[in-house]
Amino acid sequence: MALRGPKVWLWRWRRNPLKRRADRVEAWVVLGVWTLTVVVGVLAGLSVSRSVEEGLARERVEWRPVEARLAEKAPGRAAENDDASRAEHVWAQARWAAADGSPHSGQVRVLAGSAAGTPITVWTDREGLQVTRPVTESQARVRAVLIGGAAGFLTAVLPLAAGRATRRHLERRRIDQWDAEWARFGPMWGRTTG
């Protein structure tokens, strides 16, 4: 276990007669990498978050509920009691008309045993194609923050990895220089003057 002295803040920037050019370069690389990591991560996270929130807001504006009718009787048996929360839901074919009057059809979830012609609400886009219900503003905000945070974090990893590779390269060069210096001065230590 190596003994270390007290942690000194900004030790890379302190004056030291033993500090080499490689040490100064490494100090600037570390500063640049951390600055770039923070800036890139924050900018990427904010832009992705804004993009997600705008896309979800556009969906809330463009997607509309439409009344559809079951084209066939839903499979299964209808619930005998009035407890709709425990009733079985199944997929059944439904038909609806888009805003321009064009006919559309698709699979919808309905209560088992629902009769043909039963009205159902279906969400559609501008073309009348079936979509899911759009998220609320608060759900959109949470989703945007989560996706933006993940994108910011993953984007920030790139400069960190590049900085790590650069520091590894600098370390290899520094060790090679130490080996060369040791090869030159090491043999002198064994000699005695006399």
Short note summarizing the structure:
InterPro entries: MT1774/Rv1733c-like. The chain crosses the membrane at residues 25-46, 144-163. Helices cover 47% and strands 17% of the residues.
Offer a few descriptive terms:
2 helices, 194 residues, five-stranded antiparallel β-sheet, alpha+beta, transmembrane helix, transmembrane, rod-shaped
> What's the shape?
rod-shaped
Query: Got a strand count?
Result: 5
Number of helices: 2
Low-pLDDT runs? none
Following the backbone from N to C, one meets helices and strands in this order, namely HEEEEEH
Q: Give the strand order of the largest sheet, numbering strands 1, 2, ... along the chain.
A: 3-2-1-4-5
Specify the structural class: alpha+beta
List the helices and strands and how they pair.
Blueprint: H1 21-62, E1 64-70, E2 89-97, E3 103-111, E4 119-124, E5 130-131, H2 137-185
Antiparallel strand pairs: 1-2, 1-4, 2-3, 4-5
Keywords: Membrane, Transmembrane, Transmembrane helix
InterPro entries: MT1774/Rv1733c-like
Transmembrane segments: 25-46, 144-163
Could you characterize what this model shows?
This protein has a five-stranded antiparallel sheet. 47% of the residues lie in helices and 17% in strands. It starts with 20 loop residues before the first helix and ends in a 9-residue tail after the last helix. Helix 1 packs antiparallel against helix 2. It has 194 residues and is of the alpha+beta class. The protein contains two helices and five strands, in the order H-E-E-E-E-E-H. InterPro entries: MT1774/Rv1733c-like. Keywords: Membrane, Transmembrane, Transmembrane helix.
